[in-house]
Amino acid sequence: xxxxxxxxxxxxxxxxxxMCRDGGCGxxxxxxxxxxxxxxxxxxxxxxxxxxxxxxxxxxxPLIKKIYSxxxxxxxxxxxxxxxxxxxxxxxAQLIKAGKAHPYVAxxxxxxxxxxxxxxxxxxxxxxxxxxxxRTPRKADVLFFAGCYASHHTQYMAKAVVKILDHAGVKWTxxxxxxxxxxxxxxxxxxxxxxxxxxxxxxxxxxxxAEELGVTKIVTHCPGCFKTFKHVPRRLGLTLKVELLHxxxxxxxxxxxxxxxxxxxxxTYVYQDGCHxxxxxxxxxxxxxxxxxxxxxxxxxMEPRIRDLQECCTGSLKRxxxxxxxxxxxxxxxxxxxxxxxxxxxxxxKETGADILTSTCGGCHRSFVGGNxxxxxxxxxxxxQISTLVTDLMI
Length: 395
Ligand code: SF4
Ligand code: SF4
Description:
Layout: H1 11-16, H2 30-35, H3 42-53, H4 61-67, H5 75-79, H6 84-97, H7 103-115, E1 142-145, H8 148-152, H9 155-167, E2 172-173, H10 184-188, H11 192-213, E3 217-220, H12 223-235, E4 243-246, H13 247-256, E5 268-271, H14 276-280, H15 285-292, E6 298-300, H16 315-318, H17 331-351, E7 356-359, H18 362-369, H19 375-380, E8 382-385, H20 386-393
Parallel strand pairs: 1-2, 1-3, 3-4, 5-6, 5-7, 7-8
The structure holds iron/sulfur cluster (SF4) (2 copies).
């Protein structure tokens, strides 16, 4: 047995898995549901981990493919206290150690070390989405943590948030260039130590903002940032000195205080519960409350796959089929699998009769917008971020 194995720390969990079936971890694992192979189910990953730990399995291309198939949806973590998802992350860490990680991991590492983000964009441009006079941190009540992708790529999302905050008369600031990646992408790729270093940097910067700028709340738009700040500080033995809210929870507070009101909409809306904001973050109600606060709007649900039973958009799976890894023979596999799952989810949204599919997650939004659906289907159901919806309807 390889006693130096990263997997060894999960030995107890791996050997405790009974491969149970009904109601177990694999029941709604999106990969197992769509491929049907035991080796792709969470319990299959437990057996792969056992095989590697005992030296009975070798790291082969098909095995690597299975390890990167997990979408990080967290379903199995909520179904079993043995937490197969943790074992999957340890498997990815083991691949890095063995020099067999997906080529994209090396690119992430490089981007983290040179740019403090996995978004492949220069750190000095992180605040470019803001007008120059607002890029420096200032005295404020609310700290908006924009996150990597909204800062560098989907800037319209960050701009929508501050437009709403201004509209509601909220005094807000950002961390400026003291904002680094929260660490979530590094966690998902198996680089836990790196992730923890980034999270720690941000926690200390947030706490400094509490002391020096008078910040009392931090709001995140990205569900990954929310998940990180909700769970990681305690594990690192640190405490956030401010209240943590997801932006949808903060919008609900503004609605209750009468600072955010909407014009009428006769549309029917359906909401996609993202994995990170839902299963990991525990935020299910706030986005629904926002839709219900729109006069004339109707909210329908993709029953029974809602809340903690929701289906993943496969946003993190798409990462492994990206253009940076053209040399990898399995690229088409990740793309096709992701498309298959998103298409099915989009069909479920369409079957509710909704006019508009909403989400709070940039990953969900990109998956649905970028989905290779038939043209007519996309035209039938619009896909809108909650923050964009708020900016469109607020009065
Ligand atoms: S990980 Fe837990 S739920 Fe899944 S098969 Fe093993 S014991 Fe059952
Ligand atoms: S986190 Fe989701 S995709 Fe990954 S193994 Fe668990 S249930 Fe399957």
